[in-house]
Specification:
The structure is a homodimer. Chain A is an all-alpha fold and about 230 residues long. Chain A is about 60% helix and about 0% strand. The structure holds a DNA duplex (30 and 30 nucleotides). Chains A, B: This is TetR family transcriptional regulator.
Amino acid sequence: MSDHQRQQQRLEISRHAVRLFREQGVSATSGEQIASAAGVSERTLWRYFRSKESCVEPLLTRTVNAFKDALRSWPPDLELTEHLDVEYTLTPAPSRSDIEAVLAVVRLTRDEPALRAVWLVLHERAEPTFAEVLGERMGLPPDSLEVRIHAASMNTALRVATDDFAWAAAEGIGPEAMDRYRERLSSALRTVLRVPDRAPAHGTERAESGAVPPTHPHDRPRPPRPGA
Amino acid sequence: MSDHQRQQQRLEISRHAVRLFREQGVSATSGEQIASAAGVSERTLWRYFRSKESCVEPLLTRTVNAFKDALRSWPPDLELTEHLDVEYTLTPAPSRSDIEAVLAVVRLTRDEPALRAVWLVLHERAEPTFAEVLGERMGLPPDSLEVRIHAASMNTALRVATDDFAWAAAEGIGPEAMDRYRERLSSALRTVLRVPDRAPAHGTERAESGAVPPTHPHDRPRPPRPGA
DNA sequence: CAACTTTGTGGCAGGGACTGCCATAAATGA
DNA sequence: TCATTTATGGCAGTCCCTGCCACAAAGTTG
């Protein structure tokens, strides 16, 4: 079986899993349900995914992958943000419904610690790739501390911006939402990369800290008693 | 039962869990073992911890907490790195063996995805605190995108530096190792905060990308077949 | 085409993580 | 001292997930 076929299979399962998670919640969705919805036996489901929650991975990865692709095509003579403005559309590969599914999952991660974990792990896994590109740029080895830090920061900026976007676009995504997203992402990357801004300082893109607060009171060790 | 007592109990269990994880590996350690080692019933173990792996949390949190404390005592007239050099000793609260345990766990996270996940989640949970301090500093609301990004970057820098340290100090930690750690952490934070360096640029603290490479080939979807 | 090997899948059994429920003990307070 | 709350243990049960085996599909060699 080709690697590509396997990926497709995983993606297909992922779509079903996410649909069920959205409809019923994660804990109310059993592995058996996912398996039968995807038309495979439960046994093979566990061969494809190590855990119930990791079923969302193939879909979630798409946001990071889109960024990766954009990064790799980053020409040396351009600002990163400028390049992303034209390149990082996120619309090419994934369909509209896929995007909405991804964003829905991101929102789910707020209250589902296990999903949050796969989201974070998934992002971290992308860091070596970022480090490679940045290392190239900076003329430093990709495994040097400095490059790794920058890569991780970039990663983090991407994550925060995406989180933000997921909540801002909670009800439907129009082109203006996408624009807002790119704008926020650019802003985030700029603060990380500290590219000399043409505008004097801040004041335009931040200010109103609008949108839904994507903070995460989520996890906590979950002790029996919340109060005193 | 006081909150503090509960914390102590959790910490105590955590020590046992980590010891067992180090001795036998995570998967070979059962919840029952942890419970009986800690002298509680399995039932109450699950009341204290939502999962086997999260048992390491109370210990792991100490590194982040130490940083939090140092951050909070950051006087307005000092560079952060200078402040940390004297304040962030990490030795005050936790004992030597605790520190070693923490570092061992951090090393374990390389090959134990579940542990890696709690490590990442734990770090992310600290970001609001960082954001509060930074927001204060920057005169911006703690929930503004810019502040959150900076907080997250700081977080990430701390994580990468700690990871690095855990591997560099794999065999015993002397004072020189601690010094190296602080140095690396300072370096990491400097690249994130981009504080104007007194030295012309780089060239002193990075250069040799020494230490053990703390990259993480760890997770991967775990497909049955690695090759073709 | 036939025999053989390789690879993907399903079924079954089982272990272990985790939860709900109830009984009971310990702590708190009047 | 009694009543109430709170922490714990035991037990049963569910579900996630794995090891094993048997079988089918696909590729390889003669």
